[in-house]
Structure prediction request, 62 residues.
Amino acid sequence: MIAAFLRPRPTAALPGIGPKTARTLAHYGLRTVGDLADTPPAILQRILGATVGRRITDLAHG
Prediction:
């Protein structure tokens, strides 16, 4: 399953997450794709903005 493959990968493994966004996410304790997948979409939208937060949520779920 794609989601299981992605979970242990660093957040920067997802398209659209560069070094700056990865640092921002790490500041909130979000270091892996699994961390992102487990975070409620509303939280990611608050951290990254509505559009990017939704996109990252979708990508983190494979």
The domain at 2-60 is CATH 1.10.150.20 (DNA polymerase; domain 1). Helices lie at 2-6, 19-27, 33-38, 41-48, 50-60.
